[in-house]
Amino acid sequence: MSLVELADVSYTYPGGVLAVDGVSLRVDAGESLAIIGQNGAGKTTTVKLMNGLLKPSSGRVLIGGEDTARRTAAQVARRVGYVFQNPDDQIFNTTVAKEISYGLKRLRLDAGESERRLDEAAALTGLGDRLEENPHDLPLSVRKFVTIAAVLAVDCEVLVLDEPTAGQDQAGLDRIAEIVEVMTGRGRAVVTITHDMEFVARHFARVVVMAERRVVTQGRAEEIFTDSAAMATARLARPAIVELADRLGLADVGLSLDALADAWRSRG
Ligand SMILES: Nc1ncnc2c1ncn2[C@@H]1O[C@H](COP(=O)(O)OP(=O)(O)OP(=O)(O)O)[C@@H](O)[C@H]1O
C-alpha cells in the first residue's frame, strides 16, 4: 500500500476554475517525489489535496489507505505536513522556539519528547542558536527554515515542501538536501513542488510532470529528464547535465556527472 495515493482526482475551485483534472499518482514510504510543471499547471492544488486543505471534487485521495474525504483537514495535516511556499503565510509566533513548538502542543506529548523534537528540528534546520529570536526579524531564507522546522517537529509521514530552494544560498540548498535524505531514510515520504530542475535531478528519485491540470508523465528522475518530448510538452528546461550529454552525443549517462565524465573519456 502506498503512503499517498491520488486516484483519478479532479478539483474545481468554488469560483468554477478546474485546477486539477484526472490526476493519479502514488508516493511510497521512504520515497522522494518532485512535482514539476509551469505556473498554473496544478501543482499547488495537487499537494493541497494531499494534505486535506482541499477535498477532491471527484476521485479519491488516500493517505496510508485512509480516504481524506472522511477526515478533517486537521486530521490529515497530522499525517501530511505542508510547508508553504511563502513562510509569511505560516509564521505567527513571536519566537522561533514557539513557532516550532506550536504544532507539537496539539499532539499532547510529554515535556521530554516535545523538547527532544524541538531540539532535533532546530538542529536539522540550523536554528539551534536562534530559538529565542523573533522569526519576523529573520531573513526570508531563514524564515523558510523556521516553517520547515515546525513541520518536521510534528514528524508527519509525508513532508510536502513547496518551492523550498527559492532564495537559498548553497548552504541552504545543502541543508534542504540533507533534510530530504534524513526524512526518506526514516521511511517518511518527501514531496516537493519546484521550478529548480538541478535540485530535483540531484536529490529526488521520482518526478511527476504536470501541464494544464493533468499529469503528462511520471517515473524515475533520469527517465523523465532524458525524455525530451515530455519535457518539451511541459515546456520545462532540462537539467544542465542532460543538455550537455545530449549536445556531446553521449547516451546513457543519466544524471551522473561521473558517468558523463567516463563516457566522455572513453568515447571512440
Ligand atoms: N484559490 C483559487 N481560486 C481559484 N482558482 C485558483 C485558486 N488557486 C489556484 N487557482 C487556479 O488553478 C489553476 C492551477 O493553479 P495551481 O496554483 O495549482 O498551479 P501551480 O502549478 O501550483 O502554479 P504555480 O507554479 O504558479 O504555483 C490555475 O489556473 C490557478 O489560477
TrEMBL record:
GO terms for molecular function: ATP binding; ATP hydrolysis activity; ATPase-coupled transmembrane transporter activity. Keywords: ATP-binding, Cell membrane, Membrane, Nucleotide-binding, Translocase, Transport. It is found in: Cell membrane. The keyword Translocase applies. InterPro entries: AAA+_ATPase (IPR003593), ABC_transporter-like_ATP-bd (IPR003439), ABC_transpr_CbiO/EcfA_su (IPR015856), ECF_ABC_transporter_ATP-bd (IPR050095), P-loop_NTPase (IPR027417). SMART domains: AAA (SM00382). Transmembrane segments: none annotated. GO terms for cellular component: ATP-binding cassette (ABC) transporter complex. The keyword ATP-binding applies. It comes from the Bacteria. Residues 4-237 form the ABC transporter domain. It holds the Pfam family ABC_tran. PANTHER family: ENERGY-COUPLING FACTOR TRANSPORTER ATP-BINDING PROTEIN ECFA1, HEAVY METAL TRANSPORTER. Belongs to the ABC transporter superfamily. This is ATP-binding cassette domain-containing protein. It comes from Georgenia subflava.
